[in-house]
Amino acid sequence: MLHPRSLLLFITVCFLCLATSLQAKEYDYDPDNGEEINEICSGCHGEFGQGGKDGEYPRIAAQPIEFIMNQLRLFRDRKRKNFAMVEYIDERQMPENDMYDIARYLSEIKLKTRMSIVDENAPDFDAYARLLESKMTMQIPKAPGNIERGKKIYNKECDSCHGKEGLGDHKKAVPMLSGQYTNYLWKQVKQLRTLERIHDEDSPKEELLNEFSDEDLTDIFAYLSIVDD
Ligand code: HEC
Ligand code: HEC
Questions:
Q1: Index of the ligand 1 atom closest to the CA of residue 187
Q2: Signal sequence span per UniProt (predicted)?
């Protein structure tokens, strides 16, 4: 029989362990730090995380916090290749709480899908405001393919994880697909199909996208390119 005092000690230790393990997952959000770190990221991903060069640099704004953190960890641990970024995210330069700050900062940036209608000749036309608005507006050009067919396949095979209309799933760390450059999605398909990237942690050896033809994916991406219009 355990002495009551040992029992109390045991319970206290358990409680402390639990408390620290829970605490390890929660950081105090520091938006100023997020904004400062974004000055590094913006060199490639744009001031508002809108990406650039037709998807050579992906859009990272409004992605789920956990998805962004997961990718930064994968890059840092060399489990996902990214020569461009790796020097910026080595552990020494980016501890976990910095990752949280930048991930949350980016995930809270909302990009519009359509520019407002203004008269550029009006006397109160503000060219700078217009430029800012254009940077915060992300309209993916319509990709070729059969939209109706793509929608059907998407709804049957992808939306359980990637969410309705491809907006991603913040609770499950699944990225948005609509609002992402089509070129970038294709590049990722290649990496996923060859298992350079793991699509689903629960079945890392069976790549779902290998069950779909290029035509299927072309149609899915055609649908995703217009769904948020
Ligand atoms: C020197 C250019 C460069 C800089 C600086 C940079 N990135 Fe990247 N980043 C890239 C490239 C290129 C890719 C795409 C890699 C690929 O094609 O697989 C990428 C991919 C990503 C992805 C994966 C997106 C997805 O949907 O798969 C995330 C998240 C990301 N970057 C976040 C950041 C953050 C946060 C910072 C700042 C700390 C940053 N990047 C700085 C070039 C850069
Ligand atoms: C079981 C859930 C699940 C299903 C079903 C699923 N995905 Fe994914 N997908 C994910 C997760 C999780 C990621 C992020 C992987 C990571 O963290 O690297 C992802 C990433 C991707 C990416 C890379 C995006 C980026 O920004 O890096 C593409 C492209 C993609 N999925 C396409 C599809 C398509 C097309 C379908 C339907 C045919 C599909 N997925 C079905 C969970 C899923």
A1: 17
A2: 1-24
132 lies in the same domain as 193:
no
CB-CB contact of 142 with 218 (8 Å): no
- At residue 92 the predicted structure's pLDDT band, cuts being 50, 70 and 90, is confident
In a domain, 155, yes or no: yes
Are 117 and 191 within one domain? no
Nearest protein Cα to ligand 2, atom 5: 158
- Nearest listed ligand to the Cα of residue 211: 2
Residue 91's nearest CA partner among 102, 76, 78 is: 76
Q: Which residues pair with 137 in a beta bridge?
A: 112
CATH number at residue 112: 1.10.760.10
Count of beta carbons in the 10 Å neighbourhood of residue 80: 18
Rounded (10°) CA dihedral 127, 131, 137, 139: 100
Which one, of 60, 91, 88, 86, lies nearest residue 75 by Cα?
86
Min mean pLDDT across 28-42, 45-59, 91-105, 175-189 is at 91-105
Whole domain around residue 46: which residue ranges?
27-138
Q: In ligand 1, which atom is closest to the CA atom of 89?
A: 38
How many residues comprise the chain? 229
Indicate the residue among 111, 138, 165 that finishes a domain. 138
Between CA 228 and CA 66 the distance in angstroms is 23
* Top-confidence residue, 5 or 43: 43
Q: How many domains, in total, are found in the chain? A: 2
Cα radius of gyration (the chain): 22
